[in-house]
User: Fold this.
Amino acid sequence: MSVKQFFLGLAMVGLVLGSFAQEDSLRAENARLKRQLEEYQKLSKTTSNDVEVVDEEKELMDKIKETYGGDDLDAYKKNLKLLMANPNSLVAKIQKAYTEEDFPNALMNLESLLEKYSDSPLWLTYEKVLSQLKMIRDEYPDDFYGREPEMWSKGYYNNKFGEKTNQSFVTNTSYIKGTFSNSATENSALNVQLLINNSSNIAIQLYEYAGDNPVKDSGPYTYIVQIKGSNNTTLKFQPVYKGDRLPLNKSQSRKLHELLLKGGTTKFFIHTGRQPSSRYNFMIEDKNNSYRKIMGSN
Assistant:
């Protein structure tokens, strides 16, 4: 599940229905909400200036605060629905921004809601969402701002206690997709991860069937790696598979690094040097040459 899917689902279920009685079904609640919106359209006055809109929002927020946790649950629900039906209210703007996956606007309106109505019972729902949005903004800015993520990003190794260290590496932001074949399967899904400690220390991890655990070879066995760069330059290496990765030596790593610096499409064909042979095909599409951006020219 993507970050966007997570927050969209959280918003649609948690924010719209979270304050309603648990015994109501989703279908019945949606039907009542639709009727309430129609009622609001009949009852609401036409406003042409911000003062009237703000006053109306404040009046409803006060009523929600008064009726929250009391015996009159219907009044609380009615006021909440009326508030959400007013497109100029902050609550409606938050909902609209979530629906449209416009997370920056959702965060902006959440912060405005906190500033204006910090004692509102709605914060029982919204406060956690606010902190999660800030976390996504800081740790996954591409998802938050709706940008296409860069091909490459920086990661950090963990120590034996699972704590992040200062030792960094460069890797592909998401799995590189490909296929693999062997005596048991043909063109099955493959995920690939490159681990780049520096320009002279590069390793390749292969994930058969697009699984979560990289291939482990009981070798050591020699693999044959053939690479074709965007400028049609070809490379051929014979590294030895070790543990859960295929490490390239300094010379091999440096040559691959220089090829990746050119950006564009880099194709890989890897196969085992023994029978029966396993074959792996994948390609790196680095249209924006983000490898050069993150690694520099050296």
About this structure: The chain has two domains: 3-145, 152-295.
